[in-house]
Here is the input.
Amino acid sequence: MGLTETLADYFDLDSHDTTVRTELLAGLTTFLTMSYIVVVNPAILAAAIDIEGVGQGRLVAMLAVVTIISAATATLVMALYANRPFAQAPGLGLNAFFAFTVVLGMGVPWQTALAAVVVEGIIFIALTAVGAREYVIRLFPEPVKLAVGSGIGLFLALIGFESMRVVASDPATFLTLSPVVANDPVALISVAGLLFTFGLYARGIRGSIVIGILGTTVAGYVAAALGYTAYNPENVPGGAAIATNIFLTGSTTTYSLAAYDIRPLAGAFLEGFANVDAFTFALIVFTFFFVDFFDTAGTLVGVGQSAGFLDDEGNLPDIDKPLMADAVGTTVGGMLGTSTVTTYIESATGVEEGGRTGLTALTVAGLFLLSLLFVPLAAAIPEYASHIALVVIGVVMLGNAVEVAWDDLTYAIPAGMTIMVMPFTFSIAYGIAAGIVSYPVVKLAAGELDDIHVGQWILAGAFVVYFAVRTSGVM
Here is the structure.
């Protein structure tokens, strides 16, 4: 039996109506769209981590290696244990909370923050083993489950447009069209690449997203070779809203072999258990736990919906297995020296390319490990090029909303809240929270008490408590 036949048999490709080639292409697509984390995660964490005798350049490099290893480990578990096409890595948002809120804002030692990540991961493993996480996710109201995919689609599109430098912040409207799109080579190349990708996708060309990403990347490098760089708004009225220092060629960070010596980071969490303030530590663990739990749940349900994995009740069968991969990844990541690992919404790009099994995830894990050999090239695909895929998939995922019973207000309100709050708060978890809290309220108002499970009241109450803690200045 050849390698192709072995892979097809192990991952049961026939029953999922897919092929080895399709799975490999889907894995490549997912990797390309999330590879930016190898550069972004170290940049964020390095702002909060200070190791005596280790310079900033080496620290960033070490964090890049740790990011790759934790992502590969978690995704490998997803592939071999869960047999699902979901990829994992240290989560955006969670790493910012780790660095800027916990360490820099609250003054908690970074080792203690890592200890909180490890504790969260161990709690997740225990809860997943007894089925508690799956039970909670099954309590999600049906309209919330059906709306998650569309909410994630808008969230993806917003991230994509921001990276493409098409949208910018605005003091009056909060978000607006970048005022200098016509003068910014990055924005122009991104928009051209997006339209090119849409054209390929509309014609049904397989691998259209990968082709679009690579084509945009080539165009960016050609423009850079001709002397064009990203528009710098310095001294230009209104230009402060545009990100600066983003060049067409991506990262220029250089690395040495010292990057692979991660001993100053690995195991540092053990030091974090010394002189811990119990209350503060518990709040940190709770926040990591909350955001990771519902981000992962929302991603699994939303991407699972796009892949056609959900059953008639909107549940993802055997969800405990991908949840376990998430728990193991978080624990390993914290032990190595990075923030919480979570399932990536960019997995939707691979699913849209036809990925249906763990072979897609195995491909992503393999590419992460391969990137260890070329750490400085891990970001060779500029972020604006890879994030074109997020806009494309964002458009596709909007179609999930058609399954919501919009003529029933007790469904339309929680579904609508779920979809709208995600992009507006830049959080999958907050979108889910809005839907879960509003569901029992509107059902109660409509006199449909029989449709509300007691667990849904408890879940809604837990979200209310969480929001009170997060927005009252306690954290």
